[in-house]
Every structure is written in structure tokens, then in C-alpha cells.
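Order emerges. For instance:

***
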Amino acid sequence: MKDQIKKQLIAAFSILILILINTYSYGQINPVKKVLVLHSYHQGLEWTDNVTDGIKQTMLSHEDEVDLYFEYLDSKRYPDSLHFSQ
């Protein structure tokens, strides 16, 4: 009877240790956040490039935490309604 209780205590303690280790390691993980910057105009337009440079400069201190993605709608070069319907 004592052996059975001893085995149950060891099993319970082992499970508790595994849960604590798993919880601790999960708390240490900082997933990288993905940020999409969607510009109305094209790359090369001074205003768009200035905004992009400002965002990049601001995010330099967080470069390990954030992945930046830039997309351009080019609405200044393609102003027709066909472009917007797609």
C-alpha cells in the first residue's frame, strides 16, 4: 500500500514539474509580430518614401520583435475604377 502511494506521489510530483517547466518556457517565448504597411501610392514617391523611412527609423529599436512588410497600391499611377474593382 505504501509503495502504491509513493508511486502516485512521484507521478503527481513529476506531472507538476512538467507543467511548471512548460508554463515557464511558454512565458519566455515572444513571437515576432508581423506588421503590414499599406501605402496608397508607389515606392519612389517622395511622400511615400518619407513615411516608410520614418516607420523604419521608429521600429529600429524593436527590430527583433517586429517584421515589417510594405505594399503599394499605386493609386496615383492607376486611378481608374478598373484598378479599384480588383
Summary: The CA atoms of residues 41 and 76 lie 6 Å apart. Helices lie at 2-28, 46-59, 81-85.
